[in-house]
């Protein structure tokens, strides 16, 4: 691609034979100019000739030094033309230039003369003028251009023409050409123009021709455009489909065929394969020329085999074996199950992290001076060999641990909160955690900018590390102002009442984190951004909260399936942030094979602007039980108030009128006694602790609850019911979660009143004991009829692990146990009904979905053997 350019440069000289002399130099001497100006006279007198000489040198002249006593020479020779010629000949110059600059106000004029030092000719006169000193450079350049035309006998460019271009516009080409119509024709500039047009990347060849015209020379740029790519094909690819490869390419259909771009795209394709460990990949290209200056471009891929890690070797490790160190790394050697686990695949990012992980492993195990070198990678055929050099150094134990500086608590109290004192060997990670722990202690007392630095003192003789926590508490900081932005709907007070920090209150890191958690738990916002800025003083802080609201009003119509209800459909209209006040209003209807329910609910979370929640529920509920039907109409009024952290107390009153009908023959006597209308008037008191990080698929936190319901404030239903529940989620290894849950309760009938079967306890189903059907775990009366129990216990243990984390899908393995008992029975943990199983939970766009299978461990007489699938979809749970 370079040959056409060199050839074209040669053509310039061949096509312009009259310019061959331009390669010869002309020796010129420039005398000082006479300056007629009040300001800058000395500066201009010295520098103007230098600037003129510099421009002439760029045009190809050889500048001759003037020599000493130039002022005297100029003054005596300025009107003596023979003397000026003699002055030039003495310095072996061919031409002599001199003149004057005159400034009147803003107007500047330059007069120049040039006389031959070797010929007896009349001086040539030159003149230029302009306004303002800032235009002086332009004026001088024009003057030198006029002088160059006479000095080098150059011709003027009459016109510039571009031929041969079809796709590239002529104006786009001319913008890259410095030669201009009406100016002198300079071969040096023309050769630069050739390079500039070629560097546009659109042409295979460029030629410059000239034609004589009355006004000068016509310059013609004759170009040959590169072909346009009609189609890009990829062949030989199996690992990536054509679409994947095409999206990675910068060359597209309609692009100019540029070999530099082709080679760059070859590297892109190879990089794609190498990221997938196909390090032996080779990519070539073919160009098929077509008519109308078009071409097809084909990338030919030879993928080769996948290269995997054969061996990871360590050099210098003594304290830990290779197997111990490999467990720390993300990178691993190829194993038997590599086709499933992807073991042996090389990721440069993971390998970089491995070096840091190994370093941290040593530093956290007492090897304070340990160094891990950059992994060395060797490719041999289809295998990769990795070598990592390690300098372990000595192992240090924990020595004295102390604190000094600003201590807000006695030193022994601060030291009691540190974990490093419990360690035998020094651990950088434990020390870092202790710094954060101390920082939290100080931040909770308002010291937002407390500086806590661990000073590590090594004793190389005894191999001990003494740690001194240097504490500079700074000033106590108060919140000067809390700014809230982004809430176009939610009122400020709805947000502020969730904050546990307040204006003019002391800074507290713990309270600030809790405030953000409270805002997230509202579920009104997609995002909550927190920014803390320094206020008007060192002891002031400005808290900026920027929220991004999300829709809180919903209209839904859909359905689902559950083991209890089979198919059901539901519809609801809800607003969880009514008028931006945080109130909740919901109208919901549900129609299933067993249940028809309509509910209207309203909740005010902050009645009288205090954290007292209040609300009401109105419902109409038809329920088909195995041996009877129940139709209920009722309502409830409820109140709630926070009593401790994450803990609320609730009190509600419920009034319910139920019609019992369609009683079957095999129903119990208790059920038959309920035939007709039954009225329940009850009060329910509940204490609930809920610290879960989210409602569905929590990863940490607890849900503990105890409730007491008393019925008998009128009506014919009377009982006392107590239910307790303890549940805890806790994170385990590899982003897995454990859950333990226990429930229990009892109910007793009030004297002279009825205890309906539907207020007794049954177990079985997806939310109690899986593997058993809904209400499968029950008691039987003396007639053999199924009845509920007055007592129950229930235990659930779950191990939850991520499947598709971004989609909110997790897997679960569980163990369930529980049973129900009569009032006179003693709870026997040896006769619990048990099941084990597993399943999948997905927080899908349609709502939560659960698919779980429970297997009965100890079926008793009358139980079906094996297990049972549990399925729930939609909002049924």
What does this structure look like?
With 877 residues, the protein is an alpha+beta fold. It folds into seven domains: 3-10 and 156-225, Ubiquitin-like (UB roll) (Roll); 27-151, Rossmann fold (3-Layer(aba) Sandwich); 228-302, Roll (Ubiquitin-like (UB roll)), CATH 3.10.20; 308-391, Ubiquitin-like (UB roll); 397-472, Roll (Ubiquitin-like (UB roll)), CATH 3.10.20; 478-549, Ubiquitin-like (UB roll) (Roll); 553-873, Porin (Beta Barrel). The chain is built from 17 helices and 40 strands. Strands 23-24-25-26-27-28-29-30-31-32-33-36-37-38-39-40 form a 16-stranded antiparallel sheet, with no helix packed on it. Strands 1, 2, 3, 4, 5 and 6 form a six-stranded mixed sheet that branches. Strands 13, 14, 15 and 16 form a four-stranded mixed sheet that branches. A hairpin with a 5-residue loop joins strand 32 and strand 33. Helix 2 crosses helix 5 (136-151). It is elongated, with a radius of gyration of 46 Å. 25% of the residues are buried. It is found in: Membrane. One of its GO terms (biological process) is membrane assembly. Keywords: Cell outer membrane, Membrane, Repeat, Signal, Transmembrane, Transmembrane beta strand.
